[in-house]
Amino acid sequence: MFRPTRASFGKATATVSEPARESVSPPQAAAPAGCSVLDELTGLLFERFERDERDERDERDERDRVHGTWRRLITGEAFAHRPGLTPQERAELSYRRLGLVNDAAGDARTLVRDTRRLTALHEWTGFVDGGLCTVASIHYNLFLGSLLDHDGDRRELSDFTSLRRTGVFLCTELEHGNDVAALRTEAVFDRETGGFVLNTPVPGAQKFMPNTSLTGGPKTAVVAARLLVDGEDQGVFLFLTPLSDERGHLPGVRVRPLAERTGTPVDHCLTAFDQVRLDREAMLEAEHGRLDADGRLTSGLGNRRKRFLRSVGRVTVGKLCMSAGTLGMARAALTIATRYAHHRHISGTRAGQRVPLTAHRSHHGRLLRSLATAYAMTFLQRSVVDRWVTHDETDREEHERLERLIAVTKGWITWQAREITVECRERCGAQGLFPANGLSELPGNVEGGITAEGDNLVIWLKAASEMVFGHESGPATPVLPVGRDLGDLGFLRDLLASAERIWQRRAREALRGGPSGDPLGRWNETSGAALEMVSLHARLQAADALRAAAARTTHARARFLLENLCRLFLLDQLRDNTGDLLAAGLMSAEHVTSLHGTTESVVAALSPHLMTLVDAFHIPEEYLSRIPLANADYAERTDASPTR
């Protein structure tokens, strides 16, 4: 199988010296000519999840097209790590970098319509500049994406594609977040002019935390508002609304900066409208809703909720962008923490002996568990993006199933990214608390991804309500444990699937047995088990993606590493479910008692290859060289003052 080298999308990364880096001892097999285990792992991590023969031939160009532009961009001096800036300086820097992204992107319309490349942008910029990741997601996906999805080819968009005006997206309100379908902002149809009057009727309807300040230059918004025609509510639609120009905010636009929040600063504000007049073309229309000159609405969708969901459809791709951004943060954190673990030496067991932190199982075991999860996260992201890009949008059942999978994936990846970035910060001790070392801001930036595009718990609750009866967890026929071994990936996978089925059965029983005549009470009885079912479903999808990646490689040592990462991941996911599986007769007592020892054996097999596994993430050396903790001379650079 042809596999491109790491250099095929940007300058190859220099690596930390580690004699044991490729000393894996799987069954011997010939490796593809000129392809190292590191090349193979990187290729798998950054290529399409599914490929045909044509993809094989064009794989090198495709990987460079999707990832190479962004990876090369962040190696430049303009993207150097710059701790110590004020919040205002940081926000200004993010907008300047957005201009560089736009220059590198080529045609902005093409970028918006290319989900693979758009999500990759977030993957590479997220760990460099969380603020940039935020404003890029808003400008390209939510703003430009919404315009293009609503008869966009009939609009003049050059001001936005050239960034003469930055686009923002105003949907959530001070009193309406996840229940944004109930928002109160109004767009009243004006029969005299044929246009609209945009208004914020109550303080709770102020748009909450969009980036609407004057930072970054003139801005235009897509505003979600309730269309009122002769007092009749037609549902929520989007309206193109200029907010500011070179002189300041436009008449009727009221913007108040919010207090600083955690994570990289962005110019978040409260925004309200006082009788702002919009022309007829301001309303974003498509098949879900068109307004004629007499104020009559025609729609191909049956109710206001469906029209609303169609209006804000870019939120689905936004979820993929959020999971991509936090995924990149997790991989960068692991790279920094693992390099530090090799550089930092502490006292050994004998007098005068010094050993690296990685010598200790208590240290490298935690990093390896996080690495196994990060690999599973990456392959799950690739799998879901590919399915979204290639699915038939006219198949509504498949479309809705994929939207649910994307929501579940976003929740799981962003939550795992938080755990990984916190773990990496802790493994670097007090050094990890200093912004100069590139770790301290990452957990806060991940928090933004957890809440953006739908708070994780809420979107999981929606998925859970649909999956209790609308999805069949498997396997339908229990797989008995006789003759099965914990080293068997197929057996481990079946156990995890069985755990999902157990929790689905509990959720179904709770829903059926809940208090009659009390829908909320019934759901309260059900939601705990249903959420556990969703969590296990997400982990099973991730395990399947990692296992599939291992099966695709013909490189024996790469297969050895990936299969052991998958084994470690599955063993960890089963740990909290052994009681249920034992009670159901799906695990034996011997399986349960040997789980810890088996896990330790897998960790021991992987531990010599820590650096190989993080080097495959291909974080640019230009970025890492500016992070003191990621370099052998970190002690000499600890007292260096930040450079503005």
Structure at a glance:
By secondary structure, the protein is of the alpha+beta class.
The percent range for strand residues is 5-15%
Helix content: 40-55%
Between the first and last Cα atoms, what is the distance in angstroms? Answer: 47 Å
Helical region count?
21
Choose one word for the global shape: globular
Largest sheet: 6 strands, mixed
What is the overall pLDDT average? 90
Structural class, by secondary structure, is alpha+beta
Question: What are the low-pLDDT stretches, counting only 5+ consecutive residues below 50?
Answer: 11-33
Radius of gyration: 26 Å
Total DSSP E strands? 15
Would you give an account of this structure?
This protein is α+β, with helices and mostly antiparallel strands and 644 residues long. 52% of the residues lie in helices and 10% in strands. The strands form 5 sheets. Strands 1, 2, 3, 5, 6 and 11 form a 6-stranded mixed β-sheet that branches. Strands 4-10-9 form a 3-stranded antiparallel β-sheet, with no helix packed on it.
Core attributes:
644 residues, alpha+beta, six-stranded mixed sheet, 15 strands
List the helices and strands and how they pair.
Blueprint: H1 37-46, H2 53-73, H3 87-105, H4 108-113, H5 115-125, H6 130-149, H7 158-161, E1 166-170, E2 186-189, E3 196-199, E4 207-208, E5 219-229, E6 232-242, E7 244-245, E8 248-249, E9 253-257, E10 269-273, E11 276-278, E12 290-291, E13 297-298, H8 304-311, H9 314-343, E14 345-347, E15 354-356, H10 361-390, H11 396-427, H12 442-451, H13 456-470, H14 489-513, H15 519-552, H16 556-574, H17 578-583, H18 589-606, H19 610-615, H20 621-624, H21 634-637
Parallel strand pairs: 1-5, 2-5
Antiparallel strand pairs: 2-3, 3-11, 4-10, 5-6, 7-8, 9-10, 12-13, 14-15
Helix pairs in contact: 2-5, 3-6, 5-6, 5-9, 6-9, 9-10, 9-11, 9-12, 10-11, 10-15, 10-16, 10-18, 11-12, 11-13, 11-15, 13-15, 14-15, 14-16, 15-16, 16-18
